[in-house]
Amino acid sequence: MKILVTGVAGFIGFHTAKTLIERGDEVLGLDNLNDYYDVGLKEARLMQLQGRPGFRFVKADLADRQAIMDQFRREAPKRVVHLAAQAGVRYSITNPHAYADSNLTGFLNILEGCRQMETEHCVFASSSSVYGANTRMPFRVSDTVDHPMSLYAATKKANELMAHTYAHLYKLPMTGLRFFTVYGPWGRPDMAYFSFTKKILAGEPIEVFNHGQLARDFTYVDDIVAGVVGTLDHVAASNPKWSGDTPDPATSLAPYRLFNIGNSDPVDLMTFIGEIEAATGREAKKVLVGMQAGDVMATFADVEALRSAVGFTPSTPLKVGIRRFVDWYRGYNGV
After folding, report:
1. Which residue, of 23, 122, 145, 166, has the fewest CB within 10 Å?
2. 3-class DSSP state for residue 122?
3. Cα(323)–Cα(38) distance, rounded to whole angstroms?
4. Which residues, 6+ apart, have CB-to-CB distance to 244 below 8 Å?
């Protein structure tokens, strides 16, 4: 099966493409290789994919309507895994237009490509950040998410609405996945676990936000990819029991589904740092600081819907996942 994976040089996109190729799918990978973080890392990920049978890479920007449509018409992918986006909560505060270009205009171009080529199924990346000011834990996909805390979160909520509209109007099967704090080898340098590891190994201090009073549902990348691929294989369908009198945000009469994809086991920040200290064999020099703008106190995914739908069962303990990341980091950077 020919599958378009956008954001293929990104963290989750790289791992997803690798898994699809290894099981025999043909993957068209798309990425613009922007400089939001180290382009060299993105190119190194691509080098792990280049030359594998069934893989082809195209450099293109999501916001370039003609380039995206040309790829859809030329390749006619059967299914799409849309992972490309401008990521980051803090970056959205200082660079808002990047999020409109990539996450809104770019996603619209993907939706139009899927519509015109009658794609069988599109799985797209949403985010746990859409829960915003919600405080009832664990977060459930049936909860309303109308109070985002950052522009990044707002664009991800908008993606869910856009996807439902296309599912409704054109019967285009759409599945959104709300990712919860993904970590692991080949990860993103802007994520806390990556920067903590880098600074701890270099003997530099780390900033611990909200004085460590934060908790995150850290989810290992292999578990995430298993959920992404499993979801791709289960095409979204209409929920015949859906009612406009008591609307469920996670399903629809249209072929549309939303799922949380996380470890469903939140860990407090100080415990998380302790695991990095154990894996590196170094004690962190901690600088306790206040809360960041746009941040939330905790994330906690209820993944029962995804477990029921595709058998999603995250199985990587934090200690094991952090050790694998630190081992990769040392090898990649020679430290």
Report:
1. 23
2. strand
3. 23
4. none
pLDDT score, position 65: 97
The CA distance from 259 to 249, in Å, is 10
Phi and psi (nearest 5°) for 58? -130, 125
Give 21-67 as a 3 state SS string. Answer: HHCCCEEEEEECCCCCCCHHHHHHHHHHHCCCCCEEEEECCCCCHHH
Residue at token pair 């054109």: 170
Backbone angles phi, psi at 214, to 5 degrees: -135, 155
**pTM (predicted TM-score):** 0.95
Return all residues near 62 (Cβ < 8 A) that are at least 6 apart. 6, 32, 68, 84, 101, 102, 105, 106, 107, 109, 110
Give the whole-angstrom CA distance, residue 54 versus residue 206: 42
Confidence of residue 299 (pLDDT cuts 50, 70, 90): confident
Name the residue among 79, 80, 87, 71 with its Cα closest to residue 34: 87
DSSP string for residues in 283-311: --EEEE--PPTT--SB--B--HHHHHHH-
Q: Which one from 152, 183, 193, 220 is the annotated catalytic residue?
A: 152
183 is annotated as an active-site residue: no
Cite the beta strand spans of the chain per DSSP E.
2-6, 26-31, 55-59, 79-82, 121-127, 174-179, 182-183, 205-208, 215-216, 219-220, 256-261, 267-268, 285-288
Q: Roughly how many angstroms between the first and final C-alpha of the chain, as a whole number?
A: 40
Span 190-241, pLDDT tens digits: 999 999 999 999 999 999 988 888 889 999 999 999 999 999 999 999 999 9
**Cβ neighbour number for residue 36 with a 10 Å cutoff:** 18
Residue 94 has pLDDT above 90, yes or no: no
